[in-house]
Amino acid sequence: xxxxxxxxARPLDPAACFNQHGDPSDDxxxxxxxxxxxxxxxxxxxxxERMGLSTPKQFCKLLDRPxxxxxxxxxxxxxxxxxxxxxxxxxxxxxxxxxxxxxNHEKTQWCVGGLTRHRSIFNxxxxxxxxxxxxxxxxxxxxxxxxxxxRPFVNEDILLxxxxxxxxxxxxxxxxxxxxxxxxxxxxxxxxxxxxxxxYRASEMPQAFLFDTIYKAYQKCTEYDFEYGTECLHLxxxxxxxxxxxxxxxPTLWKVTYKQDLFAAESLIKETLSQNVCVITDVDQEALQLxxxxxxxxxxxxxxxxxxxxxxxxxxxxxxxxxxxxSYNIIIIGNTELQEKQEVIDVIANSSMxxxxxxxxxxxxxxLPESTPFSKKLDEPSAIRxxxxxxxxxxxxxxxxxxxxxxxxEELNESLENMCFISKSLMKDRNSALTGQLLVV
Length: 441
Ligand SMILES: Nc1ccn([C@@H]2O[C@H](COP(=O)(O)OP(=O)(O)OP(=O)(O)O)[C@@H](O)[C@H]2O)c(=O)n1
Ligand SMILES: O=C(CO)[C@H](O)[C@H](O)COP(=O)(O)O
Fold this sequence. Notes:
Blueprint: H1 2-6, E1 38-44, E2 61-62, E3 65-66, H2 67-76, E4 81-88, H3 93-102, E5 108-112, H4 117-126, E6 143-146, H5 156-169, E7 171-177, E8 183-185, E9 191-194, E10 201-210, H6 211-220, H7 223-228, H8 232-240, E11 245-248, H9 259-273, E12 276-281, H10 285-300, E13 304-309, H11 319-324, E14 329-333, H12 338-350, E15 359-367, H13 379-392, E16 396-404, H14 409-429, E17 438-440
Parallel strand pairs: 1-4, 1-6, 4-5, 7-11, 12-13, 12-14, 14-15, 15-16, 16-17
Antiparallel strand pairs: 2-3, 6-10, 7-10, 8-9
Helix pairs in contact: 6-8, 10-14, 12-13
The protein binds cytidine-5'-triphosphate and ribulose-5-phosphate.
């Protein structure tokens, strides 16, 4: 997947790293950065007919969080985005309100949409100017971005290019090369003609406009436009004579449309979350050795790994650091008491990181030749299960790994390789059904 190669070494936020492409000067967009203030309208009032589910796709869950929340977060995390208006169908207002509250979407407000996408967008724009929305206290922005709620992987780079171009030219939109050739059929369903693929582009989102331009276009457009139109850029061309600047966007701008797109979107999120890990080891020799060997091996798997060693009772002090690094994977190596691990879980849960993404916590136990075999400590696996069950409610996925530590370097190496592959796949799969299991390496 192209995404992997494009990831920055250590993303500040998983939402930030979906295809950070290129240099703003690549596509002729002014390098003078336009940084708002900008407002956003997210049409989310559709029913997702092509998805064929009873829940509209914008409310379908990815890693247990509604898709719409990912899109909102992608905008809210950008400083120069001032306000986000989500446009939803009347029957989903309560659901939307609960999502805004649960995920703490502080810049976001909602309004009710219309029967078509254009009607919904017009309602969203009206929030900034119509007296009936006075209580929203929103100032009309100079530039407004319009983005489908069902395109969750939009990043700051493309948004900045689009907003800057809209500021300079009145309108701008993201485009992508066509995947298939476009053909026209005749009334008997035979080929009439085909278009030369290289001359055409797919119009995607985001798009941005000078607010007054797009609002005027909607005020002037016809009932036919409202009913059948699919292109906002076309409206400003037809009704305001504004020719949009077109900017090539990354492939991750695609619109979640069919059921398979939900699987693809969730995989992309998991892939991104599994790119970095923080390993916290005990200070004894075996734990330190395992930690450093694991780091080397995970790095060959293209992961960004940081190792911190802390003595008994101090591990929870490492979590604020993990949280500032926005790492959603922690491996703790060492045989310290479960009470200590419980304290670490408490600190993670209180850090508010797990509000957005599930955290993976792998507890690595070391079985030393001279100590009581772990299999004889019957209470330990069930204690891990209990701990994991409680942690799952707090969006922390806890797994146990038991590593046989031996002086035989070949055997130890094999154990380490297994530990690396199992850890990597636990971080990548984020499988909640496996939490609480103690896997023997
Ligand atoms: N009356 C409508 C119809 C669509 N949209 C929104 O416009 C975006 C893009 O539309 P599309 O992908 O076509 O969504 P749906 O109309 O829901 O899907 P479908 O066409 O398969 O029914 C979506 O975020 C959708 O919720 C909207 O706000 N109001
Ligand atoms: O394609 C588009 C660009 O103009 C729009 O993003 C929009 O998704 C079209 O919506 P629909 O699929 O409902 O026609």
